[in-house]
Amino acid sequence: MNATARQGMLNIFISTGEVSGDIAAAHLAVALRRRCPDANLYGIGGPRMASAGVRVAFESVHLGVIGISEPLRSLPDLFRSFARTRSLLQGENPDLAILVGYEGLKFLIAWWLRSRGIPTVCYFPPRIWLWHRFARPIARSFDLVLASFPQEKLLYEQAGGNVVFVGHYLRDLLEPVSPEAKERARLHYGIPAQARLIGLLPGSRRQEVHALTPILFQCAALLRKRDSTLQFIVPLAEKRYTTFIKTHIERFSLRDCVGFSDDSHEAMRACDLILTASGTATLEASLLAVPMIIFYRISLLNLAVVRLAQASGLVGYRDIGLPNLLAGKRIVPELHQNEATASELAARAWKLLDEPEAQTLMVKELRSLAMQLGGQGSLDRVVNSILEACSKNGT
Questions:
Q1: Which residue in 49, 99, 348, 349 could disulfide with 45, CB within 3.0 to 4.6 Å?
Q2: Which of 148, 174, 161, 123 is nearest to 326 (CA)?
Q3: How confident is the model at residue 371 (pLDDT cuts 50, 70, 90)?
Q4: Could you say which DSSP state residue 240 is in?
Q5: CA–CA separation, 58 vs 84, rounded Å?
Q6: Pair 259, 364 in one domain
Q7: For residue range 209-255, what is the model confidence (pLDDT) as tens digits?
Q8: For position 249, which CATH number holds?
């Protein structure tokens, strides 16, 4: 029976283990509800999924970690979440499972579900820039892989996977900032027309925030010494980091020049420059065509593992920012490890602020990246693929 004919009876499980996955899954849930208003959507994730109409059995967005040592420390949480997920699913019989981002829990759930004959869809598969040598087992762990980038489709298809290129949902939400949109955003935040505004984004995972926040605010203090009119804004990925970040605002005497926003996209529109950790924020800034500098630090243990992986050919890329990976060249400055100091970040930021030609060139390069993410309608393509998979499964 066709899935659309039984849309009120669709029973779909959705899971993620990180903030970016919670956001993507929430957008997907809204799109599914438009097509199948009576579908039963349930799973594990975060508050954004719940607000979008997903029955969230328990929160799992805290599972998102980085590197090697951090995941090892989170293994007890990971296996507890997997055990709770199995208990949840044993009482349900989903027509389909959509596993969004977060590699750790995704594979455990996928293997268990497939052993029970339940179709699995991988939405936002593991990044090929880090996982390309494992493409074959990744592709064969899921019944369907929904690729956001053309490079993903090519690699996972070559690895024998069932892959559909759907593009990226952010392509539907974001477009290069016009002068009018920038002016409206600055008025919204009360930023004087003559002041320059810098966005400070230390990431969404706990390890990132704790490692990178001190660098960002020391950098902001150094920049203020050069220009006392500079203003800063912090789009908060998670409110639980507010107290920690405010501590560093006080530490570097920045109370009078730092604001907060719970709307990261509007905050970015208002900015002249963004200083950001690697992650989804770099893609958002790319689609908005706002100049940025990407910086990142990982632990010495994680660095040693990365170096070993690079030497053995498991990791073939030295850049970490999505705009650079998509462009195939460095169009955005990146500072890694020992380079990622407050003084070096401040020097690079000041240089970019002081060079309008460099900003213009970067904006031009960023604008060209959007075409790689497909045309408008990404979420419609995702929903079509999901409903087709349900139909093939006889639901």
A1: 49
A2: 148
A3: confident
A4: G
A5: 9
A6: yes
A7: 888 999 999 999 999 999 999 999 999 867 888 999 999 999 999 99
A8: 3.40.50.2000
Same domain, 187 and 120: no
Domain extent at residue 44: 3-168+375-392
Burial call 185-215: b when 16+ CB within 10 Å, e when fewer: bbeebebeeeebbbbbbbbbbbbbbebbbeb
Residue 116 three-state SS: coil
DSSP state of 14: E
- In this structure, the answer to whether residues 199 and 304 fall within a common structural domain is yes
Rg of the chain's alpha carbons, rounded to an integer? Answer: 21
Q: Assess contact for 77 and 206: CB atoms under 8 A.
A: no
pLDDT 10s digits, 307-323 = 555 555 545 556 678 89
pLDDT of residue 384: 96
pLDDT for 67 equals: 45
Do 281 and 383 fall into the same domain? no
Residues 379 and 255 in one domain: no
User: What's the pLDDT at 308?
Assistant: 52
Signed CA dihedral, 194, 201, 280, 282: sign only: positive
What pLDDT does residue 336 have?
A: 87
What would the mean pLDDT of 156-164 be, rounded to a whole number?
92
In tens, the pLDDT along 128-151 reads: 766 677 788 888 889 999 999 888
**Region 47-73: what's the mean pLDDT?**
71
From the list 320, 316, 343, the residue with the least C-alpha distance to 333 is 320
What pLDDT was estimated at residue 122?
93
This prediction has a pTM of 0.84
Looking at the structure of the chain, the number of domains it has is 2
Indicate if 62 and 181 belong to the same structural domain.
no
- The pLDDT of residue 110 is 86
Same domain, residue pair 360 and 211: yes
**Are residues 194 and 145 part of one domain?**
no
